[in-house]
Amino acid sequence: MLEAIINILSWLLLLAGGAFGIIGGIGLLRFPDFYSRMHAAGLTETLCAICIIFGLVLQAGISLLTLKLLLILLFLLFTAPTATHAVARAAMIDEVEPVLSEDSPRLVDYEDRP
Amino acid sequence: MRDTIFLIVLLALLWLAISGIYKPAILLLGLASLVLVTWVVIRMKIIGEEHNPTVFAWRLPRFWLWALREIVISNIHVARLVFRPEQISPRIVYQNVHFQRPLGKVIYGNTCTLTPGTVTVQLTKSGTVIHALDAKSADSLAELERRVHWLEGETDEVAAKDAGEERR
Amino acid sequence: MMTTVLVLTTLAVFATMGLALVRALKGPSIYDRILAVNVFGTKTVLIVALITFITGHFDLIDIALVYALINFIAIATVLKLVKTRNLASATPDDTGDA
């Protein structure tokens, strides 16, 4: 009984992870400029990874495999924001202009902010 | 020095956990890699309090739980926006943040980027430049700043507020 | 049943990789491409983890672990190359660096 519940929970997590991955991929194609695409990429790198890894953890039970899966998740969650920030910072230094709504300030260096 | 010892213990535990083979020859290889990594890290002068897992004590797991909840909420929000791309209103937020230590700022920037909808574009000594996908995403930043202040142990304000929410 | 779900998830992750690949090919800026490659790398890690469970060869998980780290280093390297046009240079005055 308990095993069946864990299995179903694990299936739901895996499928949700896959769904969030595809939605993030669609966002990567649909959003208008580089900066908003970063958010879509964030979608595939956070909840997609979290759901799939936790789905697999439920399958693995308490073992060395679970520890390794959680380590993978930890590395992904530590490195993904750093990589995203680095790309964004590089684009900012390269003066890639973001598409912004009218009420937003322009993107400039923090010291030169309006 | 204390941080170096913490780093060595962490690396040793990591190696033992991942390896899974405990023959003398393999253990010797592990020791060699441990010494090599520690030497490189000391030479790079990048050892700091972030290698001390006890720096935030019990507050860290609670912060992670809150961050996980926030990630789920903002993921669903951004997923909704993917299907209505005309509803996004990207904006730049200049945030003036002050934390006790550099680590607080790094955690702030990292968590901000980790939640879809907000990305840290620049992190300077005095503040941050953040790109937000819409107004709702930008609004969540104030709460994040408060949580990081709480994580650093400056205030018990959040804990008090949580208790207040539970009572209601 | 379990294998079916695992295979479905793997296919979904493959689809994500395909979408990221389209973005990498379309560009337009070099940063879009780097972003797409980064997504592609993260998804590779997940694919390897999923294949570990589909095949039952649990040693494969170490490959996913290593790939997660190598992918990060690769992205950091490419960005440094893009930004400074030089892999060996350091810019200590730029505090905004990753």
Features of the shown structure:
B: 168 residues, mainly alpha, three-stranded antiparallel beta sheet, 3 strands, 62% helix, 10% strand, C: 98 residues, 3 helices, 0% strand, flat
| Strand content bin of chain C | under 5%
Task: Give me the strand/helix succession of chain C.
Answer: HHH
Rg of chain B is 20 Å
Main β-sheet, spatial strand arrangement of chain B: 1-3-2
Summed over residues and divided by their number, the pLDDT of chain C gives a mean of: 82
Poorly predicted parts of chain B: 163-168
For the record, give the distance between the C-alpha atoms at the N and C termini of chain C, rounded to a whole number. Answer: 43 Å
**Structural domain count of chain C:** 1
Mean model confidence by pLDDT of chain B: 81
Largest interface: A-C, 50 and 49 residues
Q: Tell me the span between the first and last alpha carbons of chain B.
A: 48 Å
Walk me through the structure.
The complex is a heterotrimer of chains A (114), B (168) and C (98). Chain A is mainly alpha-helical and 114 residues long. Chain A has helices at 2-30, 34-45, 47-60, 64-93. Chain A has one domain. Chain A is built from 4 helices and no strands. The longest helix of chain A is centred in the last third of the chain and has 30 residues, at 64-93. Chain B is built from 6 helices and 3 strands; from the N terminus they run αααβαββαα. In chain B, α4 runs antiparallel to α5 (135-151). Mean pLDDT of chain B is 81; it is low at 163-168. Chain C has one domain (2-84). Chain C is built from 3 helices and no strands. In chain C, α1 (2-26) packs antiparallel against α2 and α2 (30-55) packs antiparallel against α3. The longest helix of chain C has 26 residues, at 30-55. Chain C is flat, with a radius of gyration of 17 Å. The model of chain C is unreliable at 92-98 (pLDDT under 50). At the A-C interface, α1, α2, α3 and α4 of A face α1, α2 and α3 of C.
